[in-house]
């Protein structure tokens, strides 16, 4: 395993920096008895809390002149007329070499060649038009031709496709949705939670796969801030990221209890081993190995740009500092730089195991997409 050449990246501690988390930190940050205590959505974007802009210990690193560089992958999307802020989300399908980009008020677009050419999705003739600002694409782990889209502001908040993106159907009347979570333990996918964007004490629940919705947000305590980031474990057991804390319910949302006073500021990441990582901007990343009953901090505050993680196929974690893509092979205790300097402050990042490349994307407020709206950098997880 090798990192990006040290001669090109002048880092502290020999190209490795550490999170600064005490080794014996088992603070669960809970507000009650432990007994009352994703999946990744294909892409990673900042949550409601915003980033802290820390250099994460990289020191005064110069621009990279040697080795591979970030190159444009906007392809035929460049120059396309689009509402501000342009590309709002980028995702990699888990089962095939397809990138999916969400364009503000202009639906979903797919590329099968790494970003050179793009074609619109939802063109079957019976598809409902997606006009929101895309915030999430969630794939069914057993049937990846089935996936859900959520979005904010304009149009409906949630859609589902059962035919790999040819046809999308609006899910009820829920609107302005930051993220949804589906009960994948149920073969019929009946229970869905949907968290609205920057809204307090509102959580939509559906028991009929999204046809109808009810509000269980009024049951949340006042200390729960924006109720935007749900995670369904089963039909009765839910976790909820409230930007400033993580809540848990074991009775279908009738009652909630704080299980961590940190975390919950963006979408959770369900790891390959079933554990859960949840960012808390300014306070690091929280980790649970018992379905959200207890939590401990595994990455200290100020280490990562927005405490958002992805997991590579080999199990390593990936994230971003203010300037670089970084990778951890020890659960977030230490991080190595594996990219040249980022081309701009990205909205988010994702990784394609098919292309063996990272992708980042930026907002565009000019009314048309720029050539550098999507950028890519090669990273072979099997050799690096």
General description of the model:
The protein is an all-beta fold. Helix content is 0%, strand content 31%. It has no helices and 29 strands. The strands form seven sheets. A five-stranded antiparallel beta sheet has the order 1-26-25-24-23, with no helix packed on it. A four-stranded antiparallel beta sheet has the order 2-29-28-27, with no helix packed on it. Strands 3-4-5-6 form a four-stranded antiparallel beta sheet, with no helix packed on it. Strand 9 and strand 10 form a beta hairpin. The N and C termini lie close together (5 Å).
Kindly summarize this structure in a few lines.
With 384 residues, the protein is mainly beta. Helices cover 0% and strands 31% of the residues. The chain is globular, with a radius of gyration of 20 Å.
List keywords for this structure.
5-stranded antiparallel sheet, 0% helix, mainly beta, Methylamine Dehydrogenase, Chain H
